[in-house]
Amino acid sequence: ILMFSLVKTDGDINKYAIITVISAVGSNILNYVHSKRYLTIRLIKNFGWKIHAKPIMVLFATTLMVTVYVSSDITILGFLCNDEIVGVYSVSTKIYTIVKTILSSVIVVSIPRISALLSNGNREVVNAVAQDIYETLLSISLPAVTGIILLRKQIVLLISAQEYIRATSSLLL
């Protein structure tokens, strides 16, 4: 709400930065406070980091590769075209990133539950949860795709300005 109400022009970069930093820091502080209800957080000197190093490196490498892959389209477009085209495409990228984040949050929230069920050997319950996730994703993604296709012009105007109306073509495909 603050982004939409306060950030309007190129000169509002400081407002954008402040809102982004405060939201990230505030979220982390609230997560820390909330987690203290369930966990005892303390520093441990010898925690056996060697057993955790390989899984952490796998997660790091995967995240790095996904970031490079996701950013490659805009980078290549920047080499091939001018800044105006990159800006237009970035608007449509931001719009479908919002929808993608909502859809992926369903999966991210479900992973700990599925992991706990698998560790207990509850295959039937895991299958039921997987079916629920599938149905939830379908019930969110189909209306989201339809809404983006039908309302792409209004969405682009809400997110950006009239100069970026050409972003509607990449939202259609």
Structural account:
The chain contains seven helices and no strands. By secondary structure, the chain is mostly helical.
* Structural class by helix and strand composition: mainly alpha
The stretches of 5 or more residues where confidence is low (pLDDT under 50) are none
Q: What's the total number of strands?
A: 0
Number of helices: 7
End-to-end Cα distance, whole Å, is 29 Å
Compute the gyration radius: what is it?
21 Å
Percent of residues in helices comes to over 70%
Largest sheet: none
What's the overall average pLDDT, rounded? 87
H and E order: HHHHHHH
What would you call the shape?
globular
Strand content: under 5%
How is the topology of this model organized?
Layout: H1 2-6, H2 13-35, H3 49-80, H4 83-119, H5 123-150, H6 152-159, H7 168-172
Outline of the structure:
With about 170 residues, the protein is mainly alpha-helical.
List keywords for this structure.
173 residues
